[in-house]
Amino acid sequence: IDSQIFFDGKIQKMVSVLAALASVEFNRRCQMTMLKTAADRSMPVFDSRVFQLPNKMEATNAFLWREQDATKNAISMAARTMFSHKELMNKSGNEMQEMMWQEHGVNFNDYPVFFKRGTFVRRELDWVELTDETYFNIPEEHRPDGRVVQRHCMKELDMPKFSTVTNRVEVIFDSADPIVGG
């Protein structure tokens, strides 16, 4: 297999471009959804980090930590829409959830999964039908015979709470389906 590391391994280039790509794509999707009004108020931007980990298990643990951090941040964000900074000061996530329930009847568990824990995506090969515009923009010498072709697409995974997944390394690195442990 002939492959090359992203941007020849130039860490700062990876960091800046990945953050820019995430910001652009997030804002593009906001414009296409109900989040449009939020995007009109302020355009979210992302930062990024590139770092090495010693093995696949530690890399997988980074995903676990990110999901746990996303949950902590989601609880705080939801609570901030209902309470002042002063009211939330020194409150734990559980205390914030209890305040939301007791004073506003809002159960954090009723929020959508993507809001509570983030989203796992995977690059997968899929069959897609080319539109006329796409098909005719392909130079004739490279144009496929038919309209249905294989393309890599980003697919959202139906990921259970990641801490309950027993085969985390295989899910992240080998495209395995998640297995939930008891």
From TrEMBL:
One of its GO terms (biological process) is tRNA modification. GO terms for molecular function: magnesium ion binding; tRNA guanylyltransferase activity. InterPro entries: tRNAHis_GuaTrfase_Thg1, tRNAHis_GuaTrfase_Thg1_sf. Gene3D superfamilies: 3.30.70.3000. PANTHER family: TRNA(HIS) GUANYLYLTRANSFERASE-RELATED, TRNAHIS GUANYLYLTRANSFERASE CATALYTIC DOMAIN-CONTAINING PROTEIN. This is Uncharacterized protein.
